[in-house]
Amino acid sequence: MCVVYWTTDDPEYSLILASNRDEFLARPASPAQWRTVHGRSGNDLTMLGGLDSLAGGTWLGVTRTGAFAVLTNVTEHPRPEMDEQGRPLCSRGELVMAWMEAHQGPRPRDGADVLQDLFRVRQRYAGFNLLAGCVQGTEVRMGYVTNRVEATEPDILAVSGSGEVYGLSNSTLHTPWPKIAYGKSALQHVLSEPRTTPDELIERLFGVMSESQRTIHVMDDMQHTVHVSPCRLPSNVEGTRLATADELPAGHRSWYGTRTSTVLLISRTAPARALFVERDTYALPHDGQRAPVRLGSCKEHERRYEWVVTTGQCDKHGESPRGRPEKCCG
Fold first, then answer.
1. What start and end residues bound the annotated signal peptide (predicted)?
2. Three-state DSSP class for 224?
């Protein structure tokens, strides 16, 4: 159960994006950092983002050239295990990698062509939403691919001039959950307020992403809250009722909730500057016996990166001619 809100129509920023990753707290993953991974085409991909240690993909990533993508799963009960041809489903996290990989190197591919490629192979995956974008001058161009609506091509999202705010969770873009309306309204309020520094905007965005509108008693409650407080794995076949402490013994409770929140800003300047901040939200104690703990906003639980967005060729280590991105802290 993840959620992302964004706008491409701010006077200062060509992209303002805020996202929560909701996941099982025990699922192993590494935090956001600059990393070089082996891409699907056989080339190395240099990206900033977290990494799922089980499947090897990512849920949100960005490159030094400003290509970025966010993935959300489409909630389905029961979850499919095979595609229409009876083949095991691929990891959805590789879709984010594929988008970024196509925009790296001396001859990055056209974004519309990449979206078409991903659209053609969409049925090889369990239900997903892929939000993808790239920097073009002082604007950000975005597209959307899903495999849970009848469509003949991916959506190219228009650059709005009316201050439009968008949101996406675990249903499709055009059938939003109730939490999308709340988050869009909250983000519009944040954007309407005067601000003097990027940090002021960042803290307000994290405030939106930390709001809990409803206590989680059943699975459907997650459709109504931006921030998911830890709850236990569903215990019935339909996946609608949450387990009780008696049903899941201590030390084996499948705790689920908002693990990280991320803000990505790309300035409307030439050259553009990108600012990426990821914060941990909940974690399991090391002894595995106690309930999850909520983490604060101190630097110990934050990764912050800022760099100049470039479109030039990178060398074999992924360094831009403009120099290394600055890791501010964390």
1. none
2. helix
Q: CB count, 10 Å around CB of 317?
A: 9
For residue 321, say if its preceding peptide bond is cis, omega within 30 degrees of 0: no
- Closest by alpha carbon to 105, among 312, 310, 307? 312
**Token pair in block for residue 216:** 């989680």
How confident is the model over 144-153, as pLDDT tens digits? Answer: 999 998 888 8
Helix (H, G, I), strand (E, B) or coil at 320: strand
| Strand pairing class (166-168; 231-232) | unpaired
242-297, pLDDT tens digit by residue?
Answer: 655 555 545 445 888 999 999 999 999 989 999 999 999 998 887 666 788 888 76
Q: From residue 264, how far is each of 52, 158, 244 by CA, in Å? A: 20, 19, 37
CA dist 316 and 314 (Å) reads 7
**Local structure of 328: helix, strand or coil:** strand
Q: Answer for the pair 212, 225: CB distance below 8 angstroms, yes or no.
A: yes
- Please tell me the class of the 3-173+258-329 domain: alpha beta
